[in-house]
Structure formats: structure tokens, C-alpha cells
Specification:
Elements: H1 3-6, E1 7-8, E2 20-24, E3 30-34, E4 41-44, H2 47-63, E5 69-70, H3 94-130, H4 137-161
Antiparallel strand pairs: 1-5, 2-3, 3-4
């Protein structure tokens, strides 16, 4: 791709929008500076005069210049984690460590499953005590949400008492 393909110049004259820094000076005047082009400034007795002078100066400057968009391809970089890929391939303990990790995950999954089953049984028991025998998952979820909100409200009230 040549440079001409990377630079585009608009054939139309669209309006350009700039951010302008307005500063009140010690002598009572106002200075307007085009952000991004600090040498492009205007000043006047009022904010409007300073902006008008800045605008005229920028327009005069652009009569002999143009604004183009330059497209630059970013350099291809290696994924930051790629350097760690395969770092343990020759480690004789690696498979053993993976086995321990997998075993630990299975134990954690079993504990979570047991906890979920116990929790579900508690909710079923509470429903039974309330006389509700045919609750579906949505009803249980709604009940659980209400119960948690009640617990949270009670906890907040207890904290306020302390």
C-alpha cells in the first residue's frame, strides 16, 4: 500500500468542530486557545471576541493548508500470554499437578452440589410449613429473593443499632 492510499483528503468542506480553552487574563482580556494546536490563539475584550479572532486565525491558516487523515497500521504484536504456552511441557510433575487440580475441582463441585441440595431442601421444607406443595422453580426463586431481601434489611437494621 502506498502513501497515497493511506492519506485521505476530503473533497467536500465539512464543518470541523474544535475544543477551545477559554482563559480570563489578569488584564481583563480573554484568551481562546485551540486545544491540540496551542500556537493557534485569539484574544479579545470578551469571550466572543476571543473566539472570533481564534476562528479567523484558524481559517486564515487553513487557506494555505489542509487537514488530512492518516491511517497507520498498528504493528503486529505477540499475544502477551503466548510466551507462557508450553512452559511446563517438560516438567515431569505437570501431569500430577493437573491431576490434583482436577481432583480439587471435583471435590469443590461435590460440596457445592451438596450445599445446593441442602438449601433446596430447606426451601421445600419452608414451603411445606406454609402449606405450599406444588411450587415450581420460578416460585422458589421469587421466594428466595424475598427471603434474602428480608435478611439484608434485618442485617442493615442491626448494623444501625450498633
Amino acid at each position: 500500500m502506498n502513501l497515497a492510499d493511506k492519506i485521505s483528503s476530503s473533497k467536500t468542506t465539512p464543518k470541523l468542530i474544535y475544543d477551545v480553552l477559554i482563559e480570563n487574563q489578569a488584564d481583563g482580556t480573554v484568551k481562546a486557545t485551540l486545544l491540540g494546536l496551542p500556537d493557534c490563539q485569539g484574544s479579545g475584550n470578551t469571550e466572543a471576541e476571543a473566539i472570533e479572532q481564534l476562528s479567523q486565525g484558524l481559517q486564515n491558516r487553513l487557506e494555505t493548508a489542509k487537514i488530512v487523515t492518516l491511517e497507520i497500521e498498528t504493528p503486529k504484536s505477540e499475544h502477551p500470554w503466548l510466551k507462557f504456552a508450553g512452559m511446563h511441557q517438560d516438567n515431569p510433575l505437570f501431569d500430577e499437578v493437573l491431576g490434583y487440580i482436577e481432583e480439587e475441582r471435583k471435590l469443590l463441585d461435590a460440596k457445592m452440589e451438596e450445599s445446593h441440595a441442602k438449601f433446596s431442601d430447606e426451601i421445600d421444607q419452608e414451603f411445606k410449613e406454609l402449606g405450599i406443595t406444588n411450587a415450581d422453580s420460578i416460585m422458589k426463586a421469587f421466594y428466595l429473593k424475598q427471603r434474602n431481601q428480608s435478611i439484608q434489611t434485618n442485617n442493615n437494621e442491626s448494623e444501625n443499632l450498633l
